Amino acid sequence: MRMLCASTLIGEFFVIGFAGLVAMKEPDLSTATVWTVCGTLMALSVLLCGMITRPGGVQLGWALQILLIAGGFFVPSMFVLGAIFAALWWASVHYGRKIDEAKARFAAQAEAGGTPA
Fold first, then answer.
1. For residues 42-66, b (16+ Cβ closer than 10 Å) or e, as one string?
2. What's the pTM value of the predicted model, to 2 decimals?
3. Residue 30, SS3 per DSSP
């Protein structure tokens, strides 16, 4: 699960950065505000890569997805990109857990002396 979720989070890192560049063109937003928010979200996405398997890591990832979608109020394309990344996050968590379960099952079979099916 860690590899799939980390890949999604790194993709989000770049999307957040590009969204910050787009948001800078908004006359109502100051450059400092845009980069404070985007920088914080970018740092969170990178830090979450190492926290995925810890308690609360997946929930923090969901919170990041909600923040990305909410970014659509400032950069309208983020509604679509945030929804896409939320779907990718769900798939990463869902299928990552299935892969982890399969690996554990195969390891237990190999340890017991059986051959994995």
1. bebbeebbebbeeeebbeebeebbe
2. 0.85
3. coil
